[in-house]
Amino acid sequence: xxxxxxxxCQFIEFLLSRSDPFLIRYASLTHAQNWRTRVRKQHLPHWQxxxxxxxxxxxxxxxxxxxxxxxxGRLPMLRRRYATERHRQSKSTQAIELDSDLxxxxxxxxxxxxxxxxxxxxxxxxxxxxxxx
Length: 133
Fold this sequence. Notes:
By secondary structure, this protein is mostly helical. The chain has helices at residues 9-16, 20-27, 32-53, 55-70, 75-91, 100-113, 118-131. Helix content is 74%, strand content 0%. The longest helix has 22 residues, at 32-53. The model has no long low-confidence stretch (mean pLDDT 89).
């Protein structure tokens, strides 16, 4: 059986990208957009820091957050949907090799610019180059 994908910031971004009806149904939220905003402002910056310093603590915190928000019975379903989404995305992406210093700098830029993922950060960098900045 394949190993489950880690509960990390990308998993949270996946949850934040779910539709209002999905969040209302599975998390019993009445104001999905307010929930998204609160998670992005209150939790995500802290989790992004933990992602680099203590991934195990991050996974435990996100697990607790998901269980409190969606219920423990929903976690396997959310993991399956996340794995399916990642599989779809992997078919439309290409892997590149980067040294660890460059990856660390990209991660810092991602956090500073509040991008959802490294692709958004690289896209932003290329736009900056296109503008001549």
